[in-house]
Inverse folding.
């Protein structure tokens, strides 16, 4: 089984309990999460060996982030300690026609002010097969971008594969800046996770016909072929989300292996926590890939992994791989006694 | 922008947490609310200057009610202190096929035993443009009725407008008593908030044809024209609620400007807290009116204000006006990052 | 009104709050429940005199189980104290596409290691009209089976009626063992609660045609007539559950009086707590029966009782009989004030 | 063993959690309690058969008060249902140099507006040996006083003993009114629980020398002999409390059997909940008396019962009699494993 | 009565509940506080008219800080909106031999990056009598220092008095930097709140003899006279804290009016929340001063105000002035009913 | 630094929140702990490399115990999965004069029914320097005893040192059985943790003179010399606890190196959680030993480690080594800002 190491920022997440609003909330639930950290945790839960690379300050908030990762079995030995603060994001969990809100307070976090020289990159990467990171790590700061590039290049030198999730965040950077920086690293990427808007808005690759509900597959196939003609990705992986309300979505997985397009079952799911569902999708796909499974299984695991994450509070999925498999194998949803 | 002062009772609301039932609940969530107080808070949140008039006892429960109002920026200087107790209502929050329940324990509250002479009415009202109150203030006691009348008459003398919400509560008074007393003050009212049953059951004004789903608008138009021929309201404002379950309703705003009938978009909403949704509707309407907006905007804000309140725990909405506007402008309901 | 005594195990139920998963939950909500105990509590809530027979250890966990029963007015004087432990079950409450999970930790509980000689059976049963128990009491251990048989036989001797719920639990015993033991007591049973799978899989009674959505009634009638030709039940009572998700089911009651088949209204219900809904159904039926009501009322109460239990946290219903009646009498589901 | 029935008011008690202050508390812990109800619960916990007489409204708050009593095994069959409301008291739990506060909202509760004719007094009292009540029941209203007198007189007719706790509450009535009414029933009392201030301030019985720390016993003996010369009490029972802070008191039991004065060990105790400690003292004394124990044991149980109640949240003690005995038998206070 | 306006930073305070440690805490209690904001809130509670000046970002965390201030009646109209973030501090509440810990995450908060030109200083200060601020506002950043100076100078021009609390925080700035900057504004100060270490370590003013328990007053008098010979303070106000453990301190107020030294009663207090006790002391003193009370009363109120704050969770006192007075008037600490 | 592996049982600990009693508690806090597991966690917190050996069932409760250990960095690779259940203990946390209570429900846990053949003992122990276990692992069952012996003997063969804590639990086994079994393994022990009662009651070694407060050291020295003459321990380590109340103890460390007796400072500590304080003591001692520190430092760390654990909720200490050092270095206990 392939071993996967991820690089990025892990933040303290503060959210009012019980779907309350921010205003005057007398307490916040504390979770720890971030795109790449969430992927590492999910992979560890699914039985894949995994590690997480970041920088965290030498205080109890930093300790707590590490405790979180370690509790799931994520290897935390490559985490550098230092810097001033753990990035924070505030999450207000929406419901029905009231949407969720995020306030970022992540500027000047330890990882976003870290230097390439903080990391012994070669010794950190040695022994791992896949390096995963996302556009967030590139976007948090120039330092983040430099560190990302250094890790990606060294990983390639060491013969590792690169998994990259576009993960565009408009509160972090503009489409222009994202486009410029992401293009610099895209040639190294083997597996690309991206929504169709990432291709059109960030890379400027536009299919002939606009997206229609009646021919989604046609639209994606056209888009994927255009992307593939430009970038040499092993897999392009997307998901189709229909946002019926802040607490009810439908979700479908879709991917392209350079040749053929694959599509998962579509699920309708009620939502306890929307955040991290994309990361659970990525982790599910990487899990199938790391285990050498076929693309059908892999896409199904990815989609079921994401769908189930919608029902779990916090940034990370707590499911095990057999529970994920049960969903796409259509087990009864009644209580088993 | 018009400045709005409201008059009524604010109660301590006690509800079991987590949609639990009353029986044996080991704790109660404490909120403060009441029809007119809720309207004042919502208006303050939406940026309208507002004050609340009531009487509250000189103890920490009374202090807490004032702290609640003040925290939203409602002017509380006209609140008279004295009397024996803060009225209480117990709320059991229903779910799906189990309906919500209310136990009133509001008899002999400070405001319901207050005297007209407790208030320096003229000095309280001076400087305000609109006086809002509801049938509840008339119905809590004879004293409440006398105080209401005194404020309404003085407000008219001072050139203020009167906004009145029928807000019929069968646990407070009979249809007969309500009819008799409401009719006494209706001639002073400029904006009337009322359901169709209020007109038929309390005022005895019945349209020619019965209410049918196929021609709701026709029914309301007929009803409104009959009412308008009798009372000189600037606006008659209603809402149409379809109670699919205790936690799922559909909701439409409807109003009449003496000439034409207007109707908002219809929303289907899952419910976290049903109480205070009518007050959020009223506040949304008064907000648009106070800001001098057109009737379409005003009705849309009112309806979206009410719909969003269904998703917020407690008696009052915590939304800001731009969040309300986003709903009827059809912004995506997905999390924004 | 008939007086009903039930026999079985009451367990400590531990469930993570807020639909959280087991993994790493920092607290568990503590409830007490078990099939027959839940029936006794529901009956007491509905106004039927009731008692519960079991054995519980002489410690505070045992005391707490008794406190729970006593708080609802269930007579607990026949509970024998002794043995080592209170059985425990862990419940993870599912949501949407994530199903609920149960971990049993009930082996060697006081009742499952009790002896027939622990109970003064005749003096316990005297004065009661109906003895109710379920397949769980037979299945927890050989001792449980022997105790059950002894109580059933003595009850019959005393002229009591026997109510029996199959309540098959695959984590307790195999279909074969269940079949063998249940058959030993079935001749004494007057009212049998069972799903169609209980008849086919445990008793081996199979209707001619397979179950189809289009002719459920036909299927059940055929099945019931076959069962009735073999066993002399006064009533056979089942429910039809359509599991759309872990938090949304549809539910219909169905029963057979040896002659005719009856069917209740079908309800669609969102779920707060799935556990104990079958017990609420049984209790509703026994309540109608104990009160001498007709079969239509009885089946309607049973179904509404179960449906409402889905919206209540914990093992037991907290509704009163008039609240149950309101549901099938189609009262408005809006808040009453 | 003697069987004890108590008469009084049971209230809903609302207290902010975690020693928080009232002001703005977002929740209240809900307990049920009242002097005589607390005595009944403690006696039931200690193994004495007991019942409670009151009137409670026919709503879920009334149901919850009954559920509370029933959960401890207190017989609730003599509770009359009706009236408007359950009395409420708000409790702010003090700490160190910040004292506890009580806000009463108990006016017009069901029992305080009940009529003598609401109760079938003779049939309620039949079969019980001791009637216990306190000055609170006399003081809540004139109706309360009339009901108390009717029960006391009938109890005496039936040969029962009367236990009476002065329990003076300055927020309920004046010393004058208390004196006038208490004197009317004192001739029927067999066991009187009272502080020295009750004798001096309410009955006007003053010892020769003022109270000094150096000769407390002398002071009390003088006081008791004077009281005994006027009233024919079997026992006069008091406690000496030294209030070092709101969360640390010392406590000593003291009593007089008409002949000799007895004194318990003095305990210093840190306080979790001060309320109901007097009731636990009374219950401990009545328990020893009901069991026919000697006065030394009885006074020790009473004092230990009260002291331990200080460490238990809520109005009532949750200890069992053997746990109480262990305290005055000087068992180790370390954890036993 | 004098009207007091304060200037400073208000932060979001995050603390694990129940005296838990930071590490892995699943939730944080959210409070809002900061030295000068706490003084404003306490003064408002004590009945003094007050306002708070700061800059807060235009998001819901900023809104919540304002809601907090407004709820107590603090005038918030001079708060400028803008900037990136609300400063945060994490508080771990110690117990017994485990001390409390603070992690500051306040860098680059809106007020610390604000400009003098953000504030219309003259119009903000007009109508107020006293400007209060502390060393924290000077120490958060150079911008904070410039803003402080600008406000102080303008206040003096307008004839206002300046109240200044040294409030040295070693995690904010060095003794050297503090000394340099504080000296720049000290000439404008009328009332100085400072510990003896502030005079010796920051200002370099050292009494002849070292501090001894036996002659604390002599030590302070010598110190105060030396300070007074150099600075023209109306009052120098200190407190003497003996830290017996993290949850038990003794506390004495001490002050100097340029002529005579005054000392309050000494209290021993158990601690629920140590933070903000100095601010409660300052507020108590300013309250007495604003009301024109004599120095004995003023020092007693200050000390009692601080002592009581130790028993209240959160940054601010919730006491009212009459409750504070009761403490130093030696009212009983037993519950009053 | 020496690396330490520990062997034993880890249980689910269920305790009512807020020092509530068991009876009727609506929730339990869930922790995981057990003597040897707690030692491993504390050592990991103090920076010592550590692992834990046990058997846990393959369910989410077992997973949660592993998550707990892993979160602190304890190596869990030697944990065997299988068996029926995780042992449970219920803890009622005492206060003041009410003592803490433990109910064990640990029979037939996975480790107590495990077989020697479940463990690849040699490969588990390889690479570790010290094996630590306690009398609890010997006492849980015969299987536990056999497994313990097998590990101890293999460890000795591999040249490891054995650390053994008597940890006598009267609810697990009798003094006789404990004596018989402990004596079988004592010859292999290098470091023995034991109270004086363990030596006298279990081993039957009695000093000449009885224990007196005036000459504790003399008593212990005599006892230790007698023990040393019989067993070849490198260190005998004890603690002296004076139980003033369930929430206040004094605590002193004492040890003997075969030659000289050492004694730590005595601390008086208020208690949040008494459980696991002995394990924190053991871990502190082993930490100093593993780091090669001198005996004075080691004993001081051990004592401070234990004392601080009294102030931390749960079975394990959350302190870091520098925080422990600060206590015995007499740092101020005031908040540091």
């Amino acid at each position: 089984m392939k071993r996967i190491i991820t690089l990025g920022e892990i933040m303290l997440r503060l959210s009012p309990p019980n779907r309350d609003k921010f205003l005057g909330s007398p307490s916040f639930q504390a979770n720890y999460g971030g795109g790449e950290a969430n992927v590492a945790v999910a992979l560890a839960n699914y039985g894949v060996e995994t590690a997480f690379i970041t920088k965290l300050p030498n205080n109890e908030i930093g300790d707590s982030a590490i405790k979180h990762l370690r509790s799931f079995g994520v290897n935390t030995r490559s985490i550098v300690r230092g810097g001033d603060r753990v990035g924070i994001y505030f999450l207000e969990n929406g419901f029905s026609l009231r949407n969720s809100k995020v306030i970022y307070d992540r500027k000047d976090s330890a990882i976003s002010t870290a230097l390439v020289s903080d990391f012994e990159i070669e010794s950190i990467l040695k022994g791992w097969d896949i390096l995963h990171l996302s556009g967030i790590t590139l976007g948090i700061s120039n330092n983040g971008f430099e560190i990302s590039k250094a890790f990606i290049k060294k990983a390639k030198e060491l013969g590792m594969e690169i998994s990259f999730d576009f993960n565009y965040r408009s509160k972090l950077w503009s489409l222009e800046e994202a486009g410029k920086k992401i293009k610099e690293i895209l040639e190294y990427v083997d597996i690309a996770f991206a929504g169709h808007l990432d291709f059109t808005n960030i890379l400027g690759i536009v299919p002939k016909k606009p997206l229609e509900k009646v021919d989604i597959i046609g639209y994606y196939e056209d888009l994927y072929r255009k992307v593939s003609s430009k970038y040499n990705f092993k897999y392009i992986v997307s998901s189709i989300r229909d946002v019926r309300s802040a607490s009810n979505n439908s979700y479908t997985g879709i991917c392209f292996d350079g040749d053929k397009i694959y599509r998962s079952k579509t699920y309708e799911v009620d939502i306890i926590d929307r955040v991290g569902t994309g990361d659970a999708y990525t982790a599910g796909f990487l899990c199938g890939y790391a285990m050498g499974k076929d693309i059908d299984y892999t896409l199904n695991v990815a989609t079921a992994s994401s769908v189930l994450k919608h029902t779990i509070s916090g940034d990370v999925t707590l499911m095990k791989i057999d529970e994920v498999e049960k969903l796409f194998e259509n087990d009864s949803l009644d209580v088993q006694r």
About this structure: The longest helix of chain C spans residues 142-157. Chain C has one domain: 4-333. Residues 181 and 326 of chain C are 40 Å apart (CA to CA). The two ends of chain C are 34 Å apart (CA to CA).
